[in-house]
Each structure stands twice: as C-alpha cells, then as structure tokens.
C-alpha cells in the first residue's frame, strides 16, 4: 500500500526518532509499504518519519544512480545492487574531505541544492530480523545513507544550507507546507490538514 509522504513543515520531520524492537507491530507490512511508497515516488531512500512515524527505520535502494555514465563500471555495479533496510542505525564515524552533491527529498519536492557531506561512514544498524551489523560505506551509497539517517535524527537537507540559500528557497518551502505544489505522488501537507 502506498503511504502519503509527509511534507516539509510537519513536526514529525523535526523529531529525533525512537528505537524499536522486534515486537514493533506489523513491521514487515510497514517495510513493504515503505518500499512501495519509495518506488512509487521514484526515490532512492525513505525514512519512517517521512510517512509520519518517528521511529529509527529507513530504506535505501541506490539502483537509479547506476545509470550515471560518469561513474566507473565498479561504482555502477555497487549502486545497482545496493538495497538495504536500516533499523536503529547509529553512524559511528564520518571521515574524509567534505564534497558537494545536489540533493533532493521526497518530503521537499522541487527543491534541490548542493549539500556538503563527508565521503566515508561507519554505521551500526539492525536488519529486519534484528541482526546487528557494523559496516563501512563511501561515495554515493554513504551519501544516501547519511541523508536518510538525518531524517531519523530530525534533520532535513535544507537545515545544512547556508542562511543565504535558506532565504532563497523560503517561499518554495512555505508553498510546500501549504500544499501549493504539483506532485505526482501522494503527500500529506501539515498546514492544509490543520485548517479542516
């Protein structure tokens, strides 16, 4: 089932999410619905807060990036096959020189900006069976993970922009929160629902 994606301005996007355990109700169904929602909106990642749930869960599937001709064959192959579920994730380390990449977000449609992030991460997480892993990632995979991880920490990519850039996009962000935007996937707008 495709879930509505929560739009910019909803308080759930600014909350630090809570850890869950294997007793979390209907977790398999939620994960399946989140995958369907992410693919329906042509996303490469989706975090539970984006569907209104302040829990430490996010999904990543970087296959759409595998079409980039500027990447090496090895990088394209890695991106093509990277699909994971992250539960109760904690980034343990971030390292390397920050690099810019043009990011967007399903909760903030039609806004794309360069965001600086470090290229390497070490992350501890649990999978859908609650087995624990500690793994290292770099490049675009690390970046997608960092973006989704920020969601469970209550951080949006727009929070990482300079005050000048934030001023430039303020009008767009206000319009998104009011539902004054054309999108081709289901969304929930905070300011519209308050008026009813």
**What is the annotated CATH architecture?**
Alpha-Beta Complex
Work out the helix count: 5
Overall geometric form: globular
- Give the terminus-to-terminus CA distance: 25 Å
Q: Can you tell me the CATH topology?
A: Peptide Deformylase
Count of distinct strands = 9
In which order are the strands of the major sheet placed?
Answer: 2-3-4-7-8
Order of helices and strands: EHEEHEEEEEHHEH
Mean pLDDT over the full residue set: 94
Which structural class fits the helix and strand makeup?
A: alpha+beta
- Tally of discrete structural domains: 1
**Rg from Cα:** 16 Å
- The first-level CATH class is given as Alpha Beta
Largest sheet: 5 strands, antiparallel
In the predicted model, the low-confidence regions spanning at least 5 consecutive residues are: none
Helical residues, percent: 25-40%
Strand residues, percent? 25-35%
